[in-house]
Amino acid sequence: MDSLIKNLRRTLSCKLHLRRDVPIVVALSGGADSVALLSALVSEGYNCVAAHCNFHLRGEESLRDMRFAEEITAKLGVDLYVKDFNVAAAMAETGESVEMACRRLRYDWFDELLTTLRAADVAVGHHREDNVETFFLNLARGTGIAGLTGMDYRRGNVVRPLLDCTRIQIEDYLAECGLGYVTDSSNNSLDYLRNRLRNCLLPQFEQLLPGAIEGVERSMGMLADARAVFDRKVAESAAQYGSPASGSIDVAAFATEPDARVLLFEILRPAGFSMTQVDNILADPMRSGAEFRSHKGDVFAELSRGTLSFSTASGNSNSDEETEVSLDSDISVPVHIKVLHKGVSEFTPEASHKVLYLDAVALDGNPRWTLRRWRRGDRIRPFGMTGTRLVSDLFSDAKMTPEQKRDTWILTRDERIVWVLGVRTSAYFAVNRRSKNYVELRLE
Predict the structure, then answer these.
(1) Does residue 334 contact residue 423 with C-beta atoms inside 8 Å?
(2) Backbone angles phi, psi at 220, to 5 degrees
(3) Cα 114 → chain centroid
């Protein structure tokens, strides 16, 4: 008992600073880790409530776990909240695996409890061996320094007070306290990668190299110290060059950094971008039109002349907005545009992108005029230039934010862009010496 309580107190004082004046939600499965966590926190004077998830995946065993959770919380004098889940329905809706669906359902409910109970944190029972398993899982999948440091003591509102405690310490503590626990039969199944690590690989590893697990733990600790230094450098780079949160990154300048590849990856990784994409970006940061999508598809990045700009999938939801308009009179929807028909003798142009001048022949043939939002890949033939340019390049030149890009309207004639309102006019149907009449469109 002394070993677990000693490690717990050190973790709570050095790594976690939990409040005693507000509730802490303890995730209680009924297993040894969660029972020890709940009992130890209660003994240390914390205001705990227990939360038990019943996923109904193991028939009678699932009901046994729930009944045990009721018994142990009654014994410890702790309030218990129980939630029943339909995992099959969740999987059918999202296409997730059983593990991912359960995890999402569990933490979504925990978030609800935090709000309902006005609790500070959710405490989960991960211990030292769990952390070593996470190290090997991340190592096998490929990871950076963060993955090799294992689990965090705190991630948001989720805390792990037992992360410095061993499985033996947990079992000894429960035996001395006279507390029982239940065992999940699925822990013995080799269908899950973590179980194969726990039950097969790590025992053999320790048998072949006695003390190897303890050595891995020491290495993780040293990596955690190195990570703190590394994280500060990443934060400094993000402040200097930009990040997805700021809307853009000056990758042309970033590319001059000696460690640009790894630093840029660490800045982009939380948004869901891969090292392969980082290599693609840095291969030619000055090119334009290259687009990248996060692995979840919810964040877009566009490279244009050394600047990587970001937008979200939800932010692009207005890209389908389109309204057919007429140039016979003023336009009031979706934006206000003053429309004037004049003879060429009155032509006194202004050097402004808020005004478009069209030769009146643009009205011949009953063309279709539309006002719509910008779309990826849009090109325009700018007035005063030869050839075409990506509209996204014009946005980059103007140093527009993702929000400004999404709010920009485009005027088209039979699908051809003639005006990016407020940004650039087109060379199509420009007023010239052969013009007799023209149309003036003024953005108000």
Answers:
(1) no
(2) -60, -40
(3) 21
